[in-house]
Design brief:
alpha/beta; Rossmann fold; 6-stranded parallel sheet; Asp/Glu_racemase_AS_2; peptidoglycan synthesis
């Protein structure tokens, strides 16, 4: 059990991402844990993480957690697939006294529970696909699964521009997913598709239209929220308050742009004045 005093149960859950995509995880967390206080940090000065080295991503992630710790947190959620793949184990070792969860393992577990024919597809950014984090996590849970991954980086641009549905969007999605949807026989057909980027849930309706009813979508944001709730319950860290939790936004650059683009991801409008600009460089990693 995590060593947190009763008075600290009202401490916030810290959530971080390289930018705005992690807001889909924040939506899911608010739905699953409406009375929890949440602090969201978007490292917008250094987005995207996908083009950075593993060493840099680990350093960025550790600085993000240190910045969140300054806001009094009881748990950390890595709402970024790249950081989850490259920095989760590092952060768990650096901060053993608090739960640190990523988005990949919950998504992999949900995919294995969902699949009917053990044929699972994963769509993500190029860096996450090349890292093979989802493939490894799924095969560790289900060694005889067939896992196909497809990089769909263009979906990030669609999501950020607010192009979530429509004929043109579906045409682009169909083109990008065509390698996964090629069908020979029934046994060869994909039956489960993991949305392996936090931007992608905003496109879920259009993706579902393209892949058809025979393919079940797994939203890593929703599955992560369920995993966070279960972990907090196990650690006796759930907030006992009966009122809606507070929500704070931090960014490392461009609060106005963050608030504007966030409207494509978050269920509520965010006022630019409510987004706090911080200098994350002040929160050096432990070995610096």
């Amino acid at each position: 059990m995590t060593d947190v005093h009763t008075g600290e149960l009202e401490a916030a859950i810290g959530v971080f991402d390289s930018g705005v995509g992690g807001l889909t995880v924040l939506n899911a967390l608010r739905e699953a844990l409406p009375n929890e206080n949440l602090v969201y940090l978007g490292d917008t000065a250094r987005v995207p993480y996908g083009t950075k080295s593993a060493v840099s991503v680990m350093r960025y992630a550790e600085q993000a957690v240190r910045a969140l710790q300054a806001r009094r947190i009881k748990a950390v959620v890595i709402a970024c697939n790249t950081a989850s793949a490259m920095a989760l184990e590092h952060l768990q070792k650096c901060y053993p006294s608090i739960p640190v969860l990523g988005v990949i393992e919950p998504g992999a577990q949900a995919a294995c529970q969902t699949t009917r024919r053990k044929h699972i597809g994963v769509i993500a950014t190029e860096s996450t696909t090349n890292n093979q984090a989802y493939q490894k996590a799924i095969l560790e849970l289900m060694p005889d699964a067939r896992v196909q991954a497809q990089a769909c980086s263009l979906f990030v641009a669609l999501a950020e521009e607010g192009w979530h549905q429509g004929e043109l969007v579906e045409q682009i999605i169909a083109k990008c997913l065509s390698p996964l949807l090629e069908k020979n026989g029934v046994e060869e057909q994909l039956d489960t598709l993991v949305l392996g980027c936090t931007h992608f849930p905003t496109l879920s309706a259009a993706i579902a239209t393209v892949v058809g009813e025979s393919v079940t979508l797994v939203d890593s944001a929703a599955t992560t929220a369920k995993a966070v709730k279960a972990r907090l319950a196990d650690e006796h860290l759930l907030n006992p308050q009966l009122v809606a939790g507070q929500l704070n936004f931090l960014v490392t650059d461009g609060p106005e742009r963050f608030a504007r683009v966030a409207n494509n991801f978050f269920n509520e409008a965010i006022a630019p004045a409510s987004v706090e600009l911080i200098d994350i460089q002040h929160f050096s990693a432990a070995d610096e």
